Amino acid sequence: MQNRPLPSRLFCRNDAAMAQPALIKTFAAMLLSATCWLAAGSAFAQDAQPLKVLRTSFRVAETGFDCQRLSDVYSNDVCAQIFDTPLEYDYLARPSKLVPSLLREVPVPEQGGLVYTFRFKPGIYFAADEAFKGVKREIVAADLEYSIKRLVDPAMSSPNSWQVDDRIVGLDELAAKAKKDGKFDYQAKVAGLQLLDRYTLKITLKKPDFNFLYVFAMPTLTPLAHEVIEYYKDDITAHPVGSGPFKLVQWVRRSKIVLERNPEYREEKLDTTYANPNDEWDREVVKSIAGKKLPLLDRIEIYPIEAEQPRFLAFINGEHDLLPETPPSYAAQVMPNGKLSPTLAAQHVRAFVELQPELTYDSFNLDDPVVGGYDAQHVALRRAMAMGFNRGQEISIIRRNSAMAAQSPIAPGIVGYDPTFTAVDQDYAPARAKALLDTYGYVDRDGDGYREQPDGSPLSIEYKISSGGLSYLMLSQLWEKSMRAIGIRLNIVTVQFGDLIRDQKVGKFQLTGAAWIADYPDAQNFLQLFYGPNTGSSNNARFRLSAFDKLYEQAIAMPDSAERNALYREMNRYILAYVPWKLGVHRSYIHLMRPWVKGFKKHPMYHSRFKYLDIDAVAQQAGHQ
Amino acid sequence: MNLSTFVMRRLLHMIPTLLGVMLLIFVLFNWVGGDPAYILAGKISDPKQIENIRTQLGVNQPYWVQFWIFIKQVCTFDFGRSWATNELVSDVLLTRVVPTLTIMVPVLLLETILAVLFAVLVAYVRGTLTDRMVMLGCTVAMSISFLVYIIVCQWLFGFKLGWFPVQGWSDSFITNLVRYAPLPILLAVMVDLAPSLRLYRSFVLDEMNHDYVRTARAKGLSENTVMLKHVLRNAAIPILTNVGIALPGLFVGSFLLEVFFSIPGLGREVVESVNRSDFPVMKAITVYLAVLTMLTNLLVDVLYRWVDPRVAFK
Amino acid sequence: MSSVMGMPVARSSEGPWRLGWRRLRRDHVAMWSLAITLLFIFIMLASYTGLIARNWNAEVAASYAEPTFDKVTNTDIHSPIGIQRPEAGPPVDISDIDPLAPRYQEWRERTAKIQAVQAAQAVRLPLGADQWGHDVLAKTIKGSEISITVGIVAALLAVFVGTALGALAGYFGGWIDTLLEWLYNVLTSLPYILLILAVAAVFSRGFTTIIMILGLTGWTGIYRLIRAEYLKHTDRAYVRAAQALGASHASRMFRHILPNVSHVILVQFSQNVVGFIKAEVILSFLGLGVPVDMVSWGTILAETQEELVLGKWWQLVAAGGSMAILVTAISMLTDAMRDALDPKLQE
């Protein structure tokens, strides 16, 4: 909390009459000065602006703020407020549009997508930190080069290295050499990273890649000051130092994160180029914050609360100003029949409904002898299971109607998403499922209510979930019921979370549940989950279909175009035909805010964008009466 | 034997127990602890990366090497850094123990005082309808699951009536004590009071059955003096023993309370470290709690023998 | 027995059990508690054999239907389902690449022959329905089956392990006692929650797992008591007499001493049942409970977390209430049993 300066006694003089007895004199003097003090104090308090403090919550706890080393969404989110990235997504433009932040302009792909030239704006400085020993530290192109190298440093074991792995000429070789030597040589020159001058970095890729720039909107590839890394060493997760609009001032792990405005933040205002005058949220944003110097908030208090009831009640009780991602259990209470509840409407609470660029799904293991395989019989089993699953109940009961049935693995709002694409082959149709199983020989021969395999051997499929917590419990209940209804025995197997991740990666499962949220707004981020060579890294279904792989390789060499969309459509058709996944839903979330929170428009690629938010502090204080 | 020999012998006995605890947790983790490398490797990873992480964490070394490292860690009480958050494990323990104690110490104090008070009052009216109703009430209170208490009370007092904040914790000790701790403390006392009351009532009644009570009454002492000066003093011994047994539990707290009220305490940390397969934190908490348990048991035994001169050191 | 030398006939002395039972019978509260406990067990057996609550898993009503004494049917139509897609186009055709294409015709024909699902029956829902539309009363009855069984079997396991180890430690003493004391100290030094999670991790989620978890972590209490009892009894005259008569160790431990400590065991068993029924709730909350196709009071209560704020109180009342009644009954019965069997209170 900021300390207010003590009010000075400006307006009164101690004129107590000298003729009176000493004691009464002293007493009167004290009384008078006390009154002046109070008057001055209250006048001062009224003159001073109340602080703009935003209190909000995370539904999953953070881990730390070295965003190269950590990959969870919420840690990244805090980093995004502290670090500037070379590029960012425009706040108002939909679909998402990359605009320059630290760079002068968005680099244009040169030589058919092989070369990108990054030109930094001069005069942008890191926030002051003791690691700089009093020197004002400017951001230069070499900081980005350092940051890219650090990402592939074997000592980091970064889960984000895939962002540059096998892309930049000479970088992987340097990383391999570092593995052998046991130490990464940061001074060594990399052919694909050329410093043309103090503010310019030229990056040369091994293969053409038109989606390369997206990774530079993520806080993992932001320029880092090597002095800071070297100064804090292992403690670096608690000392993020960037040039962004906010600084980390307090961190009680998994309990409280406090950010405060960075007083040295550069001059920045809202860019209204892409504002849509027909969108009410755009209009409110422009009205509230256009023309003002960002950031507007003084202080942000973030409270990670993983249990649903306390997090929800904290907002309802007025302890928090913003509730991102209202727990789905309360969605029906907050917005019955799609309209804001009367109680909340009376309090002028606003609700932003967002269909997130993500989907849930259940993945088969295509290498498994029982459920895997590309022949008609096994495809029939998977197709029948997909059709037997009661997605209607999933949406209405588990997701409380805040979800949209996924028609393809590509999420809405993503470049390459086709809103007209409709798939019926994954819709709930138990009669068709039963008929299909009968057709391909999966019948119940021994009368126990469950079907056997065509060769007569028993059929039992395992659905693997994590043992910690109840998150997938209801879904697994629904799976078991749905499969029992079409005669398939499904066993729910729980394992430790770490083992589940491992089993999913190495292919030790038959069916398992998961979700994927977009890292960047291009369909490739979703389709790469089916690319054969990605088996073992991100292709957990172990889907290897050469027809699909050929289409994929063609598509990544093309920029966004009608031709590429046609390729995406073809790839989706293969996924529907061979059923590596049972497609789930795209979830929608309700973000609630009190009427004094201004400037809010949820961006699909960011969890929070605090630099654009404003608080009407007077209304906030009044609201607490 | 005298006091110092007794303490020395007990301290010596602690070593094989501690080794046993270390062995148990080491075996448990390596057998069923889950693989942390995959959690740390993130959404998109390859086998090369996994190997890298495992080398860094040191889980690639042979078991006896890892166990020897463990022994050294216990001797220096330095368990390194958390695998999940890279925080110093000693920091983890120190910061988490304060919120837990902020809740548990008041709970223990309040619950003991109230339980003793009510036990004495009920003993006054033993056998009457009041006594039986109170006992029935205790039994019913004990039959409701803790989980149900938490869900209902958080909803009722936090939400419906608004008397307390629904959840939360701050960095100021006073704020915590005054604003955030009361509801969890109230809940815990409500739940713990019933069994303690029943137990202490039986201690008091046991004492009252002894001959010296009859003698005291025959001597003409008032019931008040009999209860407070004689009975309570003697019943204090088993009561204190009971409190002493509860002491180690103070430090791990109640993870249910901590999860529901978002209190960053040690109980919640245990569950989370198991879920994240964060072995350094698990090791540290276990060793720390084992040592604490053994030391408090020793302390209680010493106090017990000091208070009751009839009992000799054995 | 005929009278000899004019002395009055002595009645055969009653064993402690008969004495205990007679005292128990005089305690009205204890008799009511016994009746309630037996009632629950009877319901549980009826449920187990399928006499009642057989169709607890059927979705008979709308999601979260309110408690009512009228008959209701499942009116949940599940539409409109979720967020609509206003720009949706015609369904995409995959027949040219579909491996199933050659047998489409056969598939269509079979589909047409599959009969439609029968219309749902009307049911009474005195306790409302849960989120899936299951009858909460049926669920609670079925849940009692699992909860009570878990409580009893786990308690049996804990009592068995604790008694066996306690007898060994108390009887033999020496290095066996030292070893078991060491084991006891090690296990009680670990935080209970850690022990639970560790045992749960060894076995996958399942019915036997819960019993294992509770039984293998809950034996320490009775171990302590039985050990103390055996320490007391081993040196008693009657045991020495048995030894003089040539009784083996096993015989002395189990034929002679055990009956004399059986009242302690019974009381402990009863307490353990209560404790484990309550602990099962916590385990279910942690996600370590019974498998998903079974229902127990613990799983019902774990679901109620979210429901109270939504104003759906019926599952909480049903499961919480049933558990409270049963646990209270067993507790009062235990108290009465302890008082009735306690030799110190012999009149």
Please explain how this structure is put together.
By secondary structure, chain A is α+β, with helices and mostly antiparallel strands. Chain A is built from 18 helices and 20 strands. In chain A, the strands form 6 sheets. A 5-stranded mixed β-sheet of chain A has the order 15-14-16-12-17. In chain A, strands 1-9-8-7 form a 4-stranded mixed β-sheet, covered by helices on one side. In chain A, strands 10, 11, 13 and 18 form a 4-stranded antiparallel β-sheet that branches. Chain A is globular. With 314 residues, chain B is mainly α. Chain B starts with a helix and ends in a 7-residue tail after the last helix. Chain C has 2 domains: 253 residues, MetI-like fold (Orthogonal Bundle), CATH 1.10.3720; 48 residues, no CATH class. Helices cover 62% and strands 2% of the residues of chain C. Chain C contains 12 helices and 2 strands; from the N terminus they run ααβαβααααααααα. In chain C, α4 runs parallel beside α8. The chains are: A alpha+beta (625), B mainly alpha (314), C mainly alpha (347). Chains in contact: A-B, A-C, B-C. At the B-C interface, α1, α6, α7, α13 and α14 of B face α5, α6, α10, α11 and α12 of C.
Question: Would you kindly provide a brief summary of this structure?
Answer:
The complex is a heterotrimer of chains A (625), B (314) and C (347). Chain B is mainly α and 314 residues long.
| Uncertain segments of chain A | 1-20, 41-47
Residue fraction in strands of chain C? under 5%
- The percentage of residues in β strands of chain A lies in 15-25%
Number of strands of chain A: 20
Q: Largest inter-chain interface?
A: A-C, 69 and 50 residues
Ordered list of secondary-structure elements with their pairings:
The complex is a heterotrimer of chains A (625), B (314) and C (347).
Chain A: H1 22-47, E1 53-58, H2 73-82, E2 87-89, E3 98-100, E4 115-119, H3 141-152, H4 171-181, E5 193-197, E6 200-204, H5 226-232, E7 246-252, E8 256-261, H6 280-289, E9 299-304, H7 308-316, E10 322-323, H8 331-334, H9 342-346, E11 350-355, E12 358-364, H10 376-388, H11 391-398, E13 403-405, H12 430-439, E14 460-466, H13 473-485, E15 489-495, H14 497-506, E16 511-517, H15 524-527, H16 546-556, H17 562-578, E17 581-583, E18 585-593, E19 597-598, E20 614-615, H18 617-623
Parallel strand pairs in A: 1-9, 14-15, 14-16
Antiparallel strand pairs in A: 2-3, 4-6, 5-6, 7-8, 8-9, 10-18, 11-18, 12-16, 12-17, 13-18, 19-20
Helix pairs in contact in A: 10-12, 16-17
Chain B: H1 3-32, H2 36-41, H3 47-57, H4 63-76, H5 89-124, H6 129-143, H7 146-160, H8 173-180, H9 182-208, H10 211-218, H11 223-252, H12 255-260, H13 266-275, H14 279-307
Chain C: H1 16-26, H2 28-48, E1 68-72, H3 104-113, E2 123-125, H4 136-172, H5 174-189, H6 192-202, H7 207-217, H8 220-234, H9 237-244, H10 249-285, H11 297-307, H12 314-341
Antiparallel strand pairs in C: 1-2
Helix pairs in contact in C: 1-12, 2-4, 2-12, 4-5, 4-7, 4-8, 4-10, 4-11, 4-12, 6-7, 8-10, 9-10, 10-11, 10-12, 11-12
